[in-house]
């Protein structure tokens, strides 16, 4: 296990360094001049030259790359041209909202996928209808699902809120995580917690439907294959029921492929989060990027890209390790 862990972490570091180098190259060839973006078009030549020297832009490219990577190690993602704040501080403000939405969406996706797979394999009543509804929902673009959800559940039924993280009548909980649902629970503010949950339901479900179907299909296929195996037939001959065989003998062997698909779907979920945030006016990094792109704020765009890329790589590394835990044969 230690060897596998070392290999996966080493590969993760290499990929992150390569991603950072690509982002640096794109920033280097960008038509937006960072000096003029920071000083404005009326800056004198002497001011421009002094700023270029301060930023190290008068050094060779490889020296600039080394400086850029060194700053990343220190957590310095640069300064936003638009907000004039460091990108790290901006992300500290916007990232918790995106994390809360993405984590909730992933949890919903896993629950829906588990119901999809187990209900299909055990032939629960209504499983076919549930599978059909889930597949129809997953075939629609996430922004269209969001708009439809607002029209139905907010405008017509008045069940769920349409935007934001909390109603204006509630004060956001102050806490270490800045995840409203978690901080509200820690502080015993159950009214705030429930209101935050209601705000999460629609956007999180929109980004969960697509991954739920993909993960559920893979898990169903694995479960069906294992149920036809020799050891499953032996357990069945001993009088064990199908749910008990599934729970005690099949689940661990079948989960590996579903874990791999979960890691792959995380990247698609990140893309869906950015779109859903715009539809639901969710104050996360999707809003941050949407405001940064029109003004060519490359440090902000590059910082968000790097953070999402690192998150994707880390999650897939964790998935590889979990697969080894579930199936010890992978260690070999």
UniProtKB/TrEMBL annotation:
Q: Which residues form the ABC transmembrane type-1 domain?
A: 95-323
Task: Write down the Gene3D superfamilies for this protein, in alphabetical order.
Answer: MetI-like
- The protein's predominant localisation is membrane
The compartments listed are: Cell membrane
Pfam families from the entry? BPD_transp_1, BPD_transp_1_N
Query: Can you supply a Gene Ontology BP term from the record?
Result: transmembrane transport
**Species per Swiss-Prot/TrEMBL record:** Trebonia kvetii
Q: How does it sit in the membrane?
A: Multi-pass membrane protein
Entry keyword set: Cell membrane, Membrane, Transmembrane, Transmembrane helix, Transport
- A cellular component annotation (GO) from this entry: plasma membrane
Name of the featured protein: ABC transporter permease
Entry's transmembrane regions: 9-29, 101-122, 129-154, 192-213, 254-280, 300-322
The family annotation for this protein states:
Belongs to the binding-protein-dependent transport system permease family.
């Amino acid at each position: 296990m230690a060897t596998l862990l070392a290999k996966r972490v080493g590969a993760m570091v290499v990929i992150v360094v390569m991603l950072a180098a690509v982002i640096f190259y794109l920033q280097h060839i960008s038509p937006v001049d960072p000096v003029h973006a920071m000083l404005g078009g009326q800056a004198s030549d002497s001011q421009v030259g002094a700023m270029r020297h301060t930023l190290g832009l008068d050094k060779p490219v490889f020296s600039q790359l080394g400086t850029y990577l060194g700053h990343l190690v220190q957590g310095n993602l640069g300064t936003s041209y638009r907000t004039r704040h460091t990108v790290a501080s901006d992300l500290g403000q916007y990232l918790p909202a995106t994390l809360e939405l993405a984590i909730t969406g992933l949890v919903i996706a896993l629950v829906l996928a588990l119901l999809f797979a187990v209900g299909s394999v055990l032939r629960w009543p209504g499983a076919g209808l549930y599978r059909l509804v889930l597949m129809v929902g997953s075939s629609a673009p996430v922004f269209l699902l969001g708009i439809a959800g607002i029209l139905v559940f907010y405008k017509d039924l008045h069940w769920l809120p349409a935007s934001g993280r909390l109603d204006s009548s509630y004060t956001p909980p102050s806490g270490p995580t800045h995840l409203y649902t978690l901080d509200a629970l820690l502080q015993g503010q159950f009214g705030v917690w429930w209101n935050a949950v209601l705000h999460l339901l629609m956007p999180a479900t929109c980004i969960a439907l697509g991954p739920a179907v993909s993960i559920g299909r893979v898990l169903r296929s694995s479960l069906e294959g294992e149920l036809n195996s020799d050891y499953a037939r032996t357990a069945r001959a001993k009088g064990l029921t199908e749910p008990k065989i599934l729970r005690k003998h099949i689940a661990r062997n079948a989960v590996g492929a579903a874990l791999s698909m979960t890691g792959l779907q995380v990247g698609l979920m990140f893309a869906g989060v950015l779109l859903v945030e715009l539809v639901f006016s969710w104050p996360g990094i999707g809003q941050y990027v949407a405001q940064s792109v029109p003004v060519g704020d490359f440090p902000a765009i590059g910082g968000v890209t790097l953070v999402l890329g690192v998150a994707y790589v880390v999650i897939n590394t964790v998935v590889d390790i979990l697969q080894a835990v579930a199936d010890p044969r992978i260690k070999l």
